[in-house]
Amino acid sequence: MALVSLALCVIAACGKDESQTRGATGSTAKGGGGTVQLADASRKFLVIEPVSASENPQGRSYFGRTAFRPKALSAMTAPFAGRVVAIEVEPGQKVKSGATLFTIESADVLGLRTTLAQARLKVRTAEEVLARQNEMVKKGVGLEVERFDAEMKAREARGELERAERNAALAGGGQGTKVNVRSQVDGVIVSVKATPGAMVQPGGEPLVEIGDPTGLWVVADVPEGEVAQVAKATKAEVTISALNVTLPGRVAGIAPRSDAETRRTPFYVELESAPEELRAGLLVRVTVFGASAEGELWLPVTAVLLKDGSRRIVYVEDKTGRFIPREVEVGDERGGRVRVLKGLAPGERVVMRGALLVDREAEQLL
Predict the structure, then answer these.
(1) Does the pLDDT of residue 245 top 90, yes or no?
(2) What is the CATH number of the domain that holds 286?
């Protein structure tokens, strides 16, 4: 009997030593209730993050085109009534501010320049009279009332000259009846509608359009039933087949009305960057990614383990640093992420990567 007791004690002691050794050197030490704790050396291979509503990886795609933003497009019209006599630019040409775009011949221009010349002569004459009156009053042979009258006429002449100069400035460069219409911005000629010999009127249709290449964006159309989803979009990707590039962007806005015939609504995408080859009118495909619905959670597929062929579990870190297996219900999988329907709450810390280190018995990753 004593020998049996002694044997049992030896076995118990050996079992205790083996457990302590494994806890000191092994990678895992399992606690009660299915909790798991990893050694510090293994924890560095894990990615642990709090759960939050994230972007739905399922994007929606629409066709669109590159275009100049309204503020990036300048329309040059005729400043005076007249006839186009010369065109100095063509579509696709780069121009600098101040470059001549076209020249028109106008009788109105001749009138402005004649008025300017007359105003200058009137100022010169008035100032000469005022100078004589000042000198006469100084010598005591002139009348103050006459000097004052000369001063008023000089002021009036200067005012007329200022108005004439402002009006003549509209005519720009040129001589006689001709006026050179110049670009007000740096950019690229988008269209030229002026033709030599054409009669033009001020305020008429644009004769030359200039676009700022840095002001390009994307215009796409969305069916009326999907406007709400696009309105929630947080980011977008623009694929331009002609340039073989995909550019990041964001939805900048949605038009306030739909097309009555197509029942589609334009929306606009700003590009984060643009290659030099980008130009207006290119066909593109826009993929928008919307935010998740309220309370909807998405995890990377590496966070979800398949157990027993049907159960899905994730490992949640508690306040003590232990990992607790939690069974979850999942939905659709898109872009390497899976939607969690039940089992998790926002803010809980989940093992996003390295779950197999926590549970080596998992059959396979989702």
Answers:
(1) yes
(2) 2.40.30.170
